[in-house]
Amino acid sequence: MALALMALALLIGGCAESSPDYAGSPNPTYIQPLLPAGATEIPGRAEALPPTPEKDCGDPTASLRPFLDSDQAHSTPTVDAIRARGRLIVGLDTGRNLMSFLNPTTGEIEGFDVDIAREISRDLFGDPNRLELRIVMSENREKALEESTVDVVVNTMSITCDRRERVEFSTEYLQAKQRILTVKGSPIRSLADLDGKRVCVVPDTTSMERLQQIAPTANILTVPMWSDCLVVLQQRQVDAISTDDAILAGLTSQDPYLEIVGDSMGVESYGIGIPQANKDLVRFVNGTLERIRSDGTWTRIHSQWLPILGPPTAPSAVYRD
Ligand code: GLU
Description:
Bound molecules: glutamic acid
Helix content: 25-40%
Oligomer: single chain
Low-confidence stretches: 1-20
């Protein structure tokens, strides 16, 4: 018995020593839970990273015009192949409540992004449910498109000039703003308060890139999915999360102890990612987006999932041809 107690004491002592500081715990017996698999810590630095040379592609949201009904001559090899296969392969993850998440009651993957994908399926097959959903983490979205393991990525993916060098995007289908999520009553009220604090982000996202630019002294914890960020904030292993309000809104609606604070840190224009070679699919998807903007479908989907973000305003399409 005494031996067992000694072993337990050693174990607790060992854990406490090796685990990172528990942010503000008044409870000395608290044993820090393990960080999620794949978590990485990046200490803050005294100075901002040198700004990544701005890639100039003009307006990155400018996409390809939909086919006109009168123009029957165009060839549509990708669209034909998807129709022959009988389903649209969509890359997304399940870590974004309200956007794409596994509904525990229905066991289905649901959300704003899933419903946008359903509208593409409706135009392809006359059936909104011909989807094959493949789990793709934020950091693998571009790879999945470059290797064509998916037809489209509908996953809060921001259109940027850098990404446009490797993948195509539809026109913008939702506009978000990067903000901060923290615990209610936390001293963090704005970007300036992140100095020396621990902030959770997902790697290979514009959120992480921007945070390192404008809040270099913040310590970063990266985890594979945004839902992992929610867990580490709930465990107080970080002080805040920073990403798009469309994602933070979903996290905060899962936990009444959290709130979104601070001004917008930057605008994020969401586009449907498409492999670069599949221009016919880009035009087809843009046709679907035109339809749902004008027939009320976009507003209906927004009102179903995202009323927390305020009145719905569909971004208007910009074309480059
Ligand atoms: N929308 C941003 C991006 O594409 C950040 C959040 C995310 O989608 O993972 O990187």
